[in-house]
Design a protein that fits this description.
single chain, about 140 residues, alpha/beta, two-stranded antiparallel sheet, 7 strands, about 30% helix, about 20% strand, globular
Length: about 140
């Protein structure tokens, strides 16, 4: 079974800087960590792989420093990791993020199951990209870990 886990970096503290012109969070302004709900999703994927076999790939969209998060995912047991990173993604809203991640998933191909954390700690919104059926066309999607 080919399992994909979507992961996200979130601010490690409560203080974040916002760009006054764009309204986007300045990602380099503070420490980040892996969204805890995404760690639950990764653990669920690893347990499933242990039971039924297959592979676990983690996917994120973010700046180059997301590499540290992906290295942590490898340490936990992920088989592969993909980072979608481009300056054009800066300040992306939920719809743009949905589209970019769906294209990344399509490029990876042949995914049997996608597991996402139930929400982010950053803004407490659900994994909007996965719930937007227009951006994601694979019928096997699991949310709420």
């Amino acid at each position: 079974m080919k399992i994909l886990v979507c992961m996200k970096q979130v601010p490690a503290g409560t203080k974040v800087d916002i760009d006054p012109e764009t309204g986007a969070m300045k990602r380099l302004s503070g420490e980040t960590r892996t969204n805890p709900y995404d760690l639950f999703a990764l653990e669920a994927a690893l347990q499933l792989r242990e039971k039924v076999g297959g592979s676990v790939t983690v996917l994120t969209m973010g700046p180059p420093q997301a590499e540290e998060m992906m290295r942590d995912a490898y340490t936990m047991g992920a088989d592969d990791a993909v980072i979608l990173s481009d300056r054009k993604f800066a300040g992306a809203d939920v719809l743009a993020t949905s589209y970019a991640l769906s294209q990344g998933i399509t490029a990876i191909g042949d995914i049997d199951l996608i597991i996402c954390g139930k929400q982010t700690t950053r803004w407490r919104y659900r994994s909007g990209w996965a719930s937007d059926r227009r951006a994601f066309r694979n019928p096997t999607c699991s949310m709420g870990v």
